[in-house]
Amino acid sequence: MFEIRDLNVHFGGIHALQGVSLYVNEGEIVTLIGANGAGKSTTLRTASGLKKPTSGQVFVDGQEITNLPTSTRVKMGLCQVPEGRRVFPRMTVSENLDLGAFQQRDRAGQANDLAGVFQRFPVLAHRRKQLAGTLSGGEQQMLAIGRAMMARPRFLLMDEPSMGLSPLLVQEIFDIILSINAAGTTILLVEQNANKALQVAHRAYVMETGRIVMSGSAAELSKTEDIRRVYLGG
Which of 175, 231, 166, 229 lies closest to 205, judged by CA? Predict the structure, then answer.
């Protein structure tokens, strides 16, 4: 469903991504793990069109989208939940969710989508008139996910969804990720909590200094000595 081929990205003289290739089949959760600065977020930003690659290609359903604008990618069902939540703090919860559906013309369907978000995140329904900047970190993460779901994604890029959350909220966010996937959304997950990521993912890629250095089923990688030592505290 989604593929990156030989992606190279530069920031000035820094070669941030060096020949990165990966794919995600329809219905999968695939996780990309690695240390800070490995290039994980850059991979997602390039996939969603927020960063232009030096070379390489990005495909959705076999169609190359490398040079398409982000708005077109969203219309194709490719959406991102950004690192750090990036909610609009001076707008209400409802206004943030409405922005997620800004390209939707089906108003009746949009109302159903909103009801679905509130069903998945009841706390957002109770706080719909509250300014997003006054929400807790966990509530803001739920809002960021709900905003992306308002765009009716077929393929969801998730960047560090558990960052800065308490252990209890981390488990809740990963339960939400599983439920979104079970409902039919394919997910590419960037996550520093490698233990949790490998528990929910079907397959995994390991990134170091801009390169993919290992890949395989999540279950197999979680048993690998190097992965356990470096990422799982084993």
Answer: 231
Residue 93 sits at φ, ψ, to 5 deg, of -55, -45
Q: Which helix (H) or strand (E) holds 216?
A: strand 211-217
Architecture of the CATH domain 2-86+155-230? 3-Layer(aba) Sandwich (3.40)
Neighbours of 125 (CB within 10 A): 15
Q: Report the amino acid identity of residue 23.
A: Y
Residue ranges of domains in the chain: 2-86+155-230
Residue 205 to residue 202: CA distance in whole angstroms: 11
Six-digit token pair at 228?
Answer: 């356990």
pLDDT averaged per 10 residues, the chain (length 234) = 95 94 97 90 95 96 94 92 88 92 74 89 93 92 93 93 85 92 96 90 94 92 79 58
**pTM, to two decimals:** 0.90
- The whole-angstrom separation of Cα 62 and Cα 105 is 26
Asked whether 153 and 1 are in contact (CB, 8 A), the reply is no
